[in-house]
Every structure is written in structure tokens, then in C-alpha cells.
Write a structure and sequence with these properties.
462 residues; alpha+beta; OB fold (Dihydrolipoamide Acetyltransferase, E2P); BirA Bifunctional Protein, domain 2; 2 domains; eight-stranded mixed sheet; five-stranded mixed barrel
């Protein structure tokens, strides 16, 4: 509370304010308290002979830490120079029946913080600041896309079958229709139907549900941006990604972020690295050596995995082996860069919805962006050939049956029929909003940027 008052001097006009009592010091015939709301904290001074008797009695007998009160009175400065309200009027607005954590020194236990987020927000102002940053980031993402002429849309959450990503869905049942349904694992296939229908720039920021494990980078319910633009490709999406990250950093007033003593520069442009070249450099053989058209060469892939020191690969699907090689050998190399890295050109075997690079039968036009060892974005030149798309889905079906890969894509007949109506060349991108907030806020756990993350059961829970 900025004030031109001198110590001991009172303002000429009375003020009124309200907030939660976060500190209370009883001195017998007087008391000091700190009131806090969502934006600031102020000090209040209560004196017996300056207040109605019933108000001072309320302070002594009925007011506790955590209560919400309204106060009125003149503003003055204490001898230490702190602006303070000399309270003449007091009323109780809401009672706190449970004690708040650790007498306002902050809630420190991480598990307790996530389970009782309301206490976490009360106790830790930096946590509130992170979620204010999240709001600014989401607004900036929207503003960037809106300014570029994108149309925000909404697509279904309840679906007859999952599609658009390699993930296991949550299943449910619609009783009125007497049919099983799933929660969406991506918005991709419906958004691309809109491109077929004539919209040229569309996006959705929505909740996605994947029946997967819980760790510092994954929550089964998360927020994803997906955007699609006609008449561009994955290079156009790279430029869009740079614009979004740059604008978000600028909106937060930062140009770099530090996590665990590593600093990442957020100012575009970002380095572009080609996966086939990096694979050759690190693993000593061409990426094509482990690929056969739309699928992996299983024997060659396992040989590379064993040479990379991955341990037992018995029973692991080829896609998982490839993922483990990437995590062990490729991603650490990207950490050498001081900016988010765009890793271009991935195998068709793991990317059934992206267009093949010209003159290649194994590599697609796809990039992923990485920072602090985690994926932030995933973008394609979208596959718009319905015959090729059907063949890709057929290969995914083979992997489900022959390689027991439960997360392989299902054939979406409605989507293929939509492609048969014609879709223009299109670039598409998905950005994990939670991951983007982690990057820009310098947080290492996704649970730090989701207000109410899904948690494992408490040890003593029934």
C-alpha cells in the first residue's frame, strides 16, 4: 500500500477493505493484524477506545487466524513506516473452522500441497503466481492464433472410438444409446474434417484424456492446443510455434527461463535438427537401416537397442523400443542446445497421420519440439491422401494384432471417407499447454501447473 504519509500522520479520508486474517498479534487493549486478498496484504490496528465495544469484543472472542473480515477506518503510518488502517469498524464475513497450515509459514509437503490445493494456494503466493502465469499463457496463445486468422472451435469429447494419437483411451457407456464410448485422446481427426469442410484455419484448446501412467510429465487428464492451417506444411507450423512461444514469453516479461541450473533462451528462432542426421551421428548407422517402408525392421531395431544398452527388450513392441532408443541416445544430445529444439523428420512407422517426405518411403514431414528433456509440441505436414491413409491405418491394425501394440491407431472409416472428399495441403500442430506452462514457469513437474492433478491413492486410503 503505497502512501505519502509521514510516520504517525493520518490520512484525511477513511477507507474500507476486506480480506483474510493471516497474522494476528494481541496486545491486550490493542492488536495488530495483517489482512490479505488475492492481490495484496495490509496491516490493521485495533484499539479498544477507538472502536465500538461490541466490535472490540468480537475481535477478542470471535476472530481467529483464517477468518475473513471487513474493516474501516483512517490510514496512518506506524513508526516503522508501514501504512496501517486504524480500525473503527469491524465485521466478520466468514469463519475458518479448520486451522490453516503451519501458522502461515507455508505448506511444504509436496503430496499434501497437491491433495489440498486450496491450502497450497492460501499458504504459497508463488503457487498462485504460477497459475496466474498459466492464465496469461492461455490468453496469449488464443490472442496469437486469433490475430493470425484462426477460428476457435469445439469438437466432441465423447466418441465412438479413439483416434488422432497413439494412446489408450478411457472407456464409458452411454445408457440411452446402449453403446460403449470413449473419451477423446486427441482432437485431430475432427479438426481435419473441418479443413475438408472449407475452414482454412481452425484451433481448439481442450481437455484430453489418456489412460496412462502418472509421473512428473504425465497426467491422465491434460490440456492440449491443436491447430490446423490449409495451404502450409510443417515448416509453417514451426514458424507458428516460434511465434506462440515468443509471444507468451513476452507477455510474461521474460526472455529466458532457468530450471535445475540450466537456462533456456526463449527468443526465436529455435534450432532445427534433422533426426536422420542425428541418428547417423550418434548411433553410427542410417535411420533407414531400422525401417522397412511403413514399418520397423524388428531385428535391426532390436540390435540397435541392445547396442544402446537398453537391457532386455523381450516382448517390447517395436514402437516402444524406438522410443527408448530416442530417450536414451537422441534426446540427451538435444540438451546441448540453449534454446527449445525442433527435431525434424521422423519414421512413418510411428506417424500414421503425416505426409511422407518427397522421394522417401520411410520418413514423414514431422517435427517435435523439446526443452528441458520434455516434448512441448508435435507437428505434421498432414497426410491428405485417403488411399495412403487407409494403408497406414491397415499397418496400425497389423501392429495391434501381430505386435500386441495396444496403443496403435484404429481405422476411422468416417475420417477416411472425409479425406476422400478432398483435403487441401495442410499443416497441423499440437502443443501441450501444461508442458508449455512448465517450460515458461521453470517447473519440473506437471502437477505444479495443473490445479487439481490426478494422484495415486493415499497409503491408508480404503
Amino acid at each position: 500500500m503505497a502512501s505519502p504519509l509521514k510516520p504517525g500522520e493520518h490520512a484525511s479520508a477513511a477507507v474500507e477493505t476486506a480480506g483474510r486474517i493471516v497474522a494476528l498479534r494481541d496486545m491486550g487493549g490493542s492488536a495488530f493484524a495483517h489482512l490479505e486478498d488475492g492481490s495484496a496484504r495490509c496491516q490493521a490496528y485495533f484499539k479498544r477506545d477507538a472502536m465500538p465495544p461490541e466490535s472490540f469484543a468480537l475481535l477478542k472472542k470471535g476472530i481467529d487466524l483464517g477468518d475473513f473480515v471487513a474493516v474501516s477506518g483512517d490510514v496512518f503510518k506506524t513508526r516503522t513506516g508501514e501504512p496501517t488502517i486504524a480500525v473503527s469498524g469491524l465485521s466478520l464475513l466468514s469463519k475458518s473452522l479448520r486451522p490453516l497450515p503451519e501458522k502461515w509459514h507455508g505448506l511444504k509437503d509436496v503430496e499434501t500441497r497437491y491433495r489440498f490445493r486450496h491450502l497450497d494456494l492460501v499458504s504459497n503466493r508463488d503457487v498462485r503466481a504460477d497459475f496466474e502465469k498459466r492464465s496469461i499463457i492461455v490468453k496469449t496463445v488464443r490472442a496469437t492464433l486469433d490475430a493470425a486468422g484462426f477460428l476457435e472451435v469445439e469438437t466432441p469429447i465423447l466418441l465412438p472410438q479413439a483416434g488422432g494419437a497413439s494412446a489408450r483411451p478411457f472407456a464409458t457407456h452411454h445408457h440411452a444409446l446402449k453403446r460403449d464410448m470413449v473419451l477423446r485422446i486427441a482432437t485431430e481427426l475432427y479438426l481435419k474434417r473441418l479443413i475438408v469442410g472449407g475452414f482454412e484455419k481452425v484451433y481448439e484448446i481442450g481437455r484430453i484424456f489418456r489412460n496412462e501412467g502418472i509421473d512428473t510429465k504425465h497426467n491422465p487428464e491434460f490440456t492440449m492446443l491443436e491447430a490446423y492451417q490449409a495451404y502450409t506444411d510443417y515448416n509453417g507450423m514451426a514458424e507458428l510455434f516460434e511465434r506462440i512461444v515468443g509471444n507468451c514469453a513476452q507477455a510474461l516479461g521474460i526472455s529466458e527461463v532457468t530450471e535445475n541450473e540450466r537456462t533456456v533462451d526463449l527468443r526465436p528462432p529455435f534450432p532445427r535438427v534433422r533426426l536422420p542426421e542425428l541418428w547417423q551421428k550418434i548411433l553410427g548407422e542410417p535411420l533407414d537401416a531400422v525401417l522397412e517402408g511403413l514399418r520397423f525392421n524388428a531385428a535391426a531395431l532390436r540390435r540397435v537397442g541392445e547396442r544402446a544398452g537398453l537391457g532386455s527388450l523381450e516382448g517390447a513392441p517395436n514402437a516402444k523400443i524406438f522410443e527408448r532408443i530416442m530417450d536414451a541416445k537422441i534426446l540427451p544430445e538435444l540438451e546441448r542446445e540453449a534454446k527449445p529444439v525442433l527435431l525434424f523428420d521422423h519414421p512413418a512407422a510411428i506417424t500414421p497421420l503425416a505426409k511422407l517426405k518427397p522421394a522417401s518411403g520411410t520418413i514423414v514431414e514431422r517435427f517435435e519440439s523439446f526443452a528441458f528433456s520434455q516434448e512441448i509440441a508435435n507437428a505434421y505436414s498432414e497426410l491428405n491422401d485417403p488411399l495412403d491413409q487407409r494403408e497406414r491405418f491397415s499397418e496400425q491394425a497389423r501392429r495391434r494384432t501381430e505386435e500386441h501394440e495396444e496403443e496403435a491407431e484404429l481405422l476411422d472409416e468416417d475420417f477416411v471417407e472425409a479425406l476422400e472428399c478432398g483435403m487441401p495441403p495442410t499443416g497441423g500442430i499440437g502443443i501441450g499447454i501444461d508442458r508449455l506452462v512448465m517450460l515458461l514457469a521453470g517447473r519440473s513437474s506437471i502437477r505444479d501447473v495443473i490445479l487439481f492433478p490426478i494422484l495415486k491413492s493415499e497409503p491408508n486410503a480404503p
